Every structure is written in C-alpha cells, then in structure tokens.
Amino acid sequence: MTNPSDSRTDGSRSRWHGRRHGKRLRKGRQSLVETLLPRLRVDVSPGDGSVDPRVLFEPGIRDIWLEVGFGGGEHLAAQAADHPEVGIVGCEAFVNGVASLLSHIENGGLRNVRIYDDDARVILERFAPESLSRVFVLFPDPWPKTRHSARRFIQTDIMDRLARLLRDGGELRVATDDMGYVRWTLDHATRHPDFEWTARRPGDWRTPPADWRPTRYEAKAIRLGRPCVYLSFVRKTRQPG
After folding, report:
1. Which of 6, 63, 141, 204 is labelled catalytic?
2. Can you list the positions of beta strands (E) in 139-228?
3. CB 114 within 8 A of CB 57
4. Whole-prediction pTM
5. Deepest of 77, 122, 203, 220, by most Cβ within 10 A of its Cβ?
6. What pLDDT shows up at residue 188?
7. End-to-end Cα, the chain, rounded Å
8. Cα–Cα distances in angstroms (integers) from residue 52 to residues 93, 129, 171, in the given order
9. Is 194 an annotated catalytic residue?
10. What is the mean pLDDT of the chain?
11. 149-197, pLDDT tens digit by residue?
C-alpha cells in the first residue's frame, strides 16, 4: 500500500515501501544533497514519449547501466570509476544512501553517474526500449513475510519491463543472501521467455563475477556467516517480427 504522505513533486504517488530517512545527515553530506544532487538528479516527470538515458550524460558515454537500490553507493561508485565510458543511473529513495553515494562521487571526481531518488519503477516506465546494457539489483529488501511478497522488486511485470529495456545480450545481475529471495528470483526469471540464466555449475552462483565490487550489505552477510548468491540472467536475442 502506498503511503499517502509519499508523493513526488510531479503529483504522482510513489510506490516506495521502505524508509526514506535514517540518522540526521552530517553537515557535509547535507550540503551535497542540497548542491550536488540537483545537478545529478534524473527528471522523468510525466510526459509524452520515452527518455533515452544517454541524453543524461556528456558525450562519449558508450553504454548505460542501471542499479536499483544502490544502498550506500559503494558498488555503483566503484563500477563508475572502473568504467568511465559507461553512464550509470542509480535509483535509491533512502536519503542517507543517496548522501553516501554523493560523497563517493565528490571524492572520486566521478562524472558518469546520475541519480533517481525515488521509486525505480518510474524509471522503468520512462526509459526507452533497448537503452540499457546492464541492470543491477543487489541485496534488495527480501520482504520475507508472505503477505509482503508483492513488495519485492523482482516481479513478473518488472521482468517484462527489464526485457523491454535491456539490449539483446544485456545482463540482469541479482545478488542476495536471502535464500527465499533466491528461489523467488529464479522462479520469476527462468520462467520468463526473454531471459536465460547463465549458470552452468554451482560455482557460477556461489562466487561473484570477475568485475564484482563489494557492497556493505554483502560484507555484513559474510560477517554474519550468511552465504551470498550471485545470479546472472542474459536478455535473449529478439526474434524478427
């Protein structure tokens, strides 16, 4: 259920179910939210037509990646630093997480990151078809109670939208330490006609990809002795007609 108090400036209702605020921000991070965020914020207000995310970046950007729920931004910032030719759009409604990513951007001098600080589903509705080459969904809230399963990000309609947005051969990468969410993701992704699970042996999902960059949630899971699972799904080639 949407919180009635959660509405965006464009008048539409957010479908965000998590917290938006945590501890009070330190002065420096609050300043980044007030000064840097407006320059990096993605504007996808309701309008005609779809948005090509490449227009959000300076010339020279080759591919566009999307990270949904970037947490503290460690993974996103590291990927942006490793791949300056890639524009990365991060979605996160938790203000403290946004402030953390802004700090990484400022300290790293990153120029290839943009932020949507609201419900990622809006981005999925507005971005142009075949405009993304990679999507990350890393350690999402598993919403473990049965009555909350509809709040999980991975759903049939989300898989449909990702199939529309990803280029042929594009990758959906999901990581989690919740085995219920693993089963849920595999059920939704492997049944979808446009995606193929890339794993061929247990090691393919027990170990992170070669270009993986750690997250704070992953580190916490490992510290608590919870195994992490790394799932990769490839967008199948579209058939003519």
Report:
1. 141
2. 166-176, 195-197
3. yes
4. 0.89
5. 77
6. 97
7. 39
8. 22, 8, 18
9. no
10. 89
11. 899 999 999 999 999 999 999 999 999 999 999 999 999 999 999 999 9
Contacts of 32 (CB under 8 A, 6+ apart): 99, 102, 103, 106
What are 184-232's pLDDT values in tens digits? 999 999 999 999 999 999 999 999 999 999 999 999 999 999 999 999 9
Range 93-96 contact pairs with CB under 8 angstroms and sequence separation of 24 or more: 93/14, 93/16, 93/18, 93/20, 93/117, 93/118, 93/119, 94/18, 94/19, 94/20, 94/21, 94/22, 95/20, 95/21, 95/22, 95/25, 95/33, 96/21, 96/22, 96/23, 96/25
Three-class DSSP category at 85: coil
Edge-to-edge strands, sheet with 229-235: 113-116, 86-91, 63-68, 132-138, 166-176, 229-235, 195-197
Pairing of strands 195-197, 166-176: unpaired
Q: Does residue 8 register a pLDDT over 60?
A: no
DSSP single-letter state for residue 6? -
